[in-house]
Design goal:
alpha/beta, eight-stranded mixed β-sheet, binds zinc ion, ten-stranded mixed β-sheet
C-alpha cells in the first residue's frame, strides 16, 4: 500500500484523479452522435472550403466554446482569419480550335479536352502523328512549332505506366514540339472508360485552385517549377475527327489541320477563411504558457456531380471528438498547462488552414505551442482499430506517440497500428514542420466511403469516437508533469 502510494506520488504528482474521472465520465456517445449528425447534415453541403456550410459549422463550434467558457483564441474572437488566393481558368476565354482551310471547329474545355494548369498561353501549329512515341520513332523527327499527336493506352495508371508516360513526354519535348495531344488507341474497347476518366479530370481541372499568399521572402514553389509542357487530352469523339475515317496515319505524317489552344486565367481573388480556436487556460503560472494544441479539420470536399459529400467520418468524427474534449475540460477544470482546441479549415485543399495557423499562431505572446495532437477520421472500421503516426518506424517517433500507445488499451484499443503513410496527409505535419514540435496523429483508417457521398452520419460508431475523445483527455492529463520529456 505504502509502496504503491509512493510510486504513484513520484510518478504523476500533477494529475488530479478525481478531476480526470469527472472529465472521462462527461464524454457521452449520444452527444457525439448529435454533433456528427449536425456537421454531416445536407444543409451544411459538405463543408467545402470556402462555402456557406463551412461558415455555419464554424459558428456551431464557436457557440459551443462560448457557452463552455473557453477563452477566444483567434485574432477575431474565436476565429483565426486567414487569407487564401483563388485562381482558376477563365473557361469562356479558354479553348481549342481545329483549323482546316477556312473552317474552324471549337473545342470546349472540360467536354472535348482537358488540360492542367492556369497560366496564360496561346499556341498554334500543325499536328504530326507520332503513334506511341517510341524513342526510335521520335529520334528522326523535328517537331519544332508543331503539336505531337500520340496515343494513350487506357490501362491503369500504375507507377510503371506513369514512369513510361513521363519518359514519352520527355522524348516529345526533346523534339521541340509545341505540346502533346493525346488520343485513345483507335477502336479501343475501353474508350468509354477513358472518357469517364476524362470527365472526372475535367471537373478537377476546372475547379478553382486555392493557395496561401507567400510569406514575405518565401519562395513560390509553383513559379520555381516553371511552365509544364502543354498536354491536351482529347475526348475520343474529338480524336476521331482529328484522325479522320481513313487508315491510321504513318508516324511522322502531318495531318491536314492546325490546332490552336488559348488558355486564360481568371483574375486572382482574395478569400478570407476561418479556423476556430478556444483556449482552456492552465492553472500553473509557469506551465500555463506551454500550450497543448489539439486539432481536427472541420472542412470537407463539398458537392460534386449533384451529390453532397457529407464527410461524417472525414472529419465530422474528429470535429465532434474535440467538442467532447471541450466538455470534458469543462468538467475537469483547468489542467496545469493550457490547452488549445483548434478546428482548421482548408485541409482538403492542401492542409491550408493549419499551415496558416502554424505560420502565425494566435496565442498570447507569452505562450507557445509545445505539442500537437491531431484527429482525423476516427469513427469507422473495427471498434478496436486505431492507428497512429509517427510510429516507432519513423524518425519523428516521440513521447507523444508512446503516451498514446500506453493509454490506448484503457479505451479499448489494445494495440495502435501505424499510420505512417498518412504522415503528410493531415494537419499535424504542419505543426511538425513549421513549429518543430512533437506531434501525434490518431486515425482509424480509410473505408469504402472515403471521399464519397456515402460518408454519412448513420455509419459512425459514436462509441468509438467517444473512446478516442477519452483517450485524448487521458493524454492531456498525462502531459502535466513539471518537465515534458517527449
Ligand atoms: Zn480528413
Amino acid at each position: 500500500m505504502l509502496l504503491s502510494t509512493l510510486a504513484a506520488a513520484s510518478l504523476a504528482i500533477p494529475s488530479d484523479p478525481a478531476a480526470l474521472e469527472r472529465a472521462l465520465a462527461s464524454v457521452n456517445p449520444l452527444g457525439i452522435c448529435a454533433d456528427v449528425r449536425f456537421l454531416a447534415s445536407d444543409e451544411l453541403e459538405g463543408r467545402d472550403t470556402p462555402s456557406q456550410g463551412l461558415r455555419l459549422a464554424a459558428r456551431y463550434l464557436r457557440a459551443r466554446l462560448e457557452r463552455l467558457g473557453f477563452q477566444p483564441a483567434g485574432d477575431a474572437g474565436y476565429f483565426d482569419l486567414y487569407e487564401l488566393l483563388e485562381s482558376g481558368l477563365d473557361a469562356e476565354a479558354s479553348g481549342v480550335a481545329l483549323l482546316a482551310g477556312e473552317g474552324e471547329t471549337a473545342l470546349v474545355l472540360g467536354r472535348d479536352y482537358v488540360t492542367y494548369g492556369t497560366s496564360a498561353r496561346e499556341l498554334e501549329g500543325a499536328v504530326v502523328y507520332v503513334g506511341l512515341g517510341s524513342a526510335e520513332d521520335l529520334r528522326a523527327l523535328d517537331l519544332r512549332g508543331r503539336w505531337a499527336l500520340t496515343l494513350d493506352e487506357v490501362n491503369a495508371r500504375d507507377r510503371e505506366a506513369w514512369r513510361a508516360w513521363n519518359e514519352r513526354v520527355e522524348r516529345v519535348r526533346a523534339t521541340g514540339a509545341l505540346g502533346i495531344l493525346t488520343a485513345p488507341v483507335p477502336g479501343s474497347a475501353s474508350a468509354a472508360e477513358r472518357d469517364e476518366r476524362l470527365a472526372r479530370a475535367a471537373r478537377g481541372a476546372l475547379e478553382p485552385r486555392l493557395r496561401l499568399p507567400e510569406p514575405p521572402g518565401g519562395d513560390d514553389e509553383r513559379r520555381e517549377r516553371g511552365p509544364d509542357f502543354p498536354t491536351l487530352t482529347l475526348a475520343s469523339t474529338v480524336a476521331h475527327t482529328l484522325l479522320g475515317p481513313g487508315p491510321t496515319p504513318a508516324v511522322g505524317q502531318e495531318l491536314a489541320l492546325r490546332v490552336r489552344e488559348r488558355r486564360r486565367p481568371r483574375a486572382e481573388e482574395r478569400l478570407v477563411l476561418e479556423n476556430v480556436a478556444g483556449l482552456w487556460p492552465g492553472s500553473d503560472p509557469e506551465l500555463a504558457r506551454e500550450v497543448l494544441v489539439l486539432t481536427a479539420h472541420y472542412d470537407h470536399v463539398g458537392k460534386s456531380g449533384g451529390e453532397i459529400y457529407n464527410g461524417a467520418d472525414d472529419n465530422g468524427s474528429g470535429t465532434a471528438a474535440l467538442l467532447a474534449v471541450a466538455e470534458a475540460l469543462r468538467a475537469h477544470g483547468p489542467l496545469r498547462r493550457s490547452v488549445l482546441l483548434l478546428w482548421v479549415s482548408g485541409e482538403e485543399k492542401g492542409l491550408l488552414g493549419s499551415r496558416a495557423w502554424t505560420r502565425a499562431p494566435t496565442l498570447p505572446e507569452t505562450h507557445r505551442a509545445v505539442v500537437n495532437l491531431n484527429v482525423d477520421m476516427v469513427g469507422r472500421n473495427a471498434p478496436e482499430r486505431l492507428l497512429v503516426t509517427p510510429s516507432a518506424k519513423l524518425g519523428d517517433y516521440n513521447g507523444l506517440t508512446r503516451l498514446a500507445e500506453r493509454l490506448a488499451p484503457l479505451e479499448g484499443f489494445p494495440e495502435l497500428g501505424a499510420a505512417d503513410e498518412y504522415w503528410r496527409r493531415s494537419d499535424h505535419v504542419n505543426f511538425a514542420e513549421e513549429l518543430g514540435i512533437p506531434v501525434a496523429f490518431l486515425f482509424a483508417g480509410e473505408h469504402e466511403d472515403y471521399h464519397r457521398p456515402g460518408d454519412d452520419a448513420d455509419k459512425i460508431d459514436c462509441d468509438k469516437v467517444k473512446r478516442v475523445a477519452r483517450l485524448l483527455v487521458r493524454m492531456l492529463d498525462g502531459l502535466q508533469a513539471d518537465e515534458l520529456d517527449l
